[in-house]
What does this fold into?
Amino acid sequence: MDHTNHVPKKEWMAYCVGALGQGMVYAIMSSYISDFYISVLKLTPLFVLLLMLLARVWDAINDPMMGTFVDRTNTKWGKCRPYLLFSPAVIMVITILTFCNGMYSSANTPGKNALIVGWAAVSYILWGMCYTVGDIPLWGVTSRMTEVEKDRASILSLARIAAGLGGGVVLLTINPLSQALGQKLESAAGSALKGQQMGFIIVAVILTVIGCGMFQMTGVFVRERVPSAEQKFGFKENFKIMWGNKPFRNQLISGVLRSPIQILLSVAMTLMSYYYGNYFGDYMLYMIIFGGAIFGGQFIAMALVPKLTEKHDKTRMLIGSTIMGAVPFALIYPVYLLAPRDLDQPLWVAILFVVFALAGGGMGALNVLQSVMIADAVDYEEYHKGYRPDGVFFSGQSFITKLSAGISSIIQIGRASCRERV
It folds into this structure.
């Protein structure tokens, strides 16, 4: 069934702008919140680690629940669009409030420290829930914008590139900007640490407002064209549907199993920063080179996936992308053994650039293939059962994404803990 010819240009461009904004907000929380808790608020690494683990356990329950709510929604705007209209503003507020916290200190009263710890825990869990309210409909709406598989794959590919760009903007700007602003605010704040905290909060607030403003574009301009089924299922029934749909079940299992790839990326970048920092002093140039290789590989792969899926089996592409995203990181150690003191030479920098670009390409292809194949699983369920579980199926993607980020955060917590001991 083809309910549309093509998604209008203005619509898919607005969708990509929204994905870019959401990518900015997600990067703020996934990449920097653990470092902010430990280095700025001075919370203990053990507490932050336990908080991250608790949040992931809750996500396993909350995400399918939210997906069920989406699938049971039926309004004049559609199934997913109502959440895209209202969730960006809520996400903006809770993201800002997450950073508005005091500094844990032995000089504080026990009651004040308890409030600081309590608000950190409550706001982080609440942020994850609010983010889910926007994330599941954001990606799930693609299967409602069009049933033309080619168009849907192209839109998802462009949106993934946009989200990656949004995350890249945050990764490249939030630390330098917050540190520079923090230094200027030292005198007004009364101490370097207070200045750092204020600088981080101000920059995080500005980027959050920009990101959520862009995210709002999706709800305003996107339209749902694929009609909803009359059937409505509850939480337990949706769990049975998720597990009974073989394509989705395979995606969920493979997504959970490959989530530790984020550990490889975090470990690789950590080792590179320590290596170049110890032997050559200024490591930032090399981090920019290798980080650029990862981003470049991701964007090229994400742009190529829609065309490749027209000619190649998606499952085989997924397996190949998983290998491509993991194996290059294992090559870093042999490269080090070949030139333990010469990795700053152009030849070895070029070799490592290719290694990181290949890894980035594998990870970028995985991002697009996962979304495309979940959308295909929705079509599969409709074809066999006459029901489109857009929300509950894309809740699986939301959980996998947050699981991967949580695993990456564990590495960041370890790094922060080491810095504290030093």
The two ends are 63 Å apart (CA to CA). The chain has 16 helices and no strands. Residues 312 and 421 are 51 Å apart (CA to CA). The chain has a mean pLDDT of 83.
